[in-house]
Amino acid sequence: MGERVLDREFFDRPSPEVAPDLLGRVLVHGPVAVRLTEVEAYGPPGEDPASHTYRGRTPRNAVMFGPPGHLYVYFTYGMHFCANFVCLPEGMGSGVLLRAGEVVEGMAAARARRHRPGTDAPLTGPRRTIPERDLARGPARLAVALGIGREHNGADCCADSGATELRVLEGDPADPASIRSGPRTGVSTAADTPWRFWIDGDPTVSPYRKHVPKTRPS
Questions:
Q1: What CA–CA distances, in Å, run from 132 to 2, 208, 215?
Q2: Model confidence pLDDT, tens digit, residues 22-62
Q3: Which residues pair with 136 in a beta bridge?
Q4: Mind listing the domains of the chain with CATH numbers?
Q5: How is 112-171 classified by DSSP, letter by letter?
Q6: What pLDDT digit, counting tens, does each position of 26-36 carry?
């Protein structure tokens, strides 16, 4: 599946260029490997209102301002981790959110992680069999399947970092003719920016969801 590890130069580009080029690449962590099928690009400070870096550097988003090829991991909704690749030179604050993928190695390990994500607490009730297409379908599921958590924020995934826990293999890049783009999922600002990229017809791609503002009951 293309064993060469992508180098830092691959990520040292604008995120809307890196994002479609990530489709078909393989992210590996331990026994689990996921072929990326859906991603979203986010721009630098002051340019993209939907980006975590839009208002500048903070303790939370500091990794986004670091060297390209590092992993930016954030916690959302009080329960999920999501993973992004940092793009552009150090100090620019841009990245690509990893939205979905196909588990191509380590199916048993990925399934076990999905059944007990981030906890050793005993399971309650009958165990539901998760369809293979759903193991890494969605950014939170992808992070769980790969065992990515808060401790991986800032991890260097590039070839020149030597032995690394997380790495991105060149894989089998998606045919450009199969790549589609459209609005990003669930963002409240810059919602129509067509920086969500996916492989057309791939069953692991997550469904598009438009942001719906929350309203208080009258």
A1: 22, 19, 35
A2: 999 999 999 999 999 999 999 999 999 989 998 989 999 99
A3: none
A4: 8-120+127-199 (3.10.300.10)
A5: HHHHSTT--PPP-SPPPPPPGGGTTBSHHHHHHHHT--GGGTT-B-SGGG-S-SEEEE--
A6: 999 999 999 99
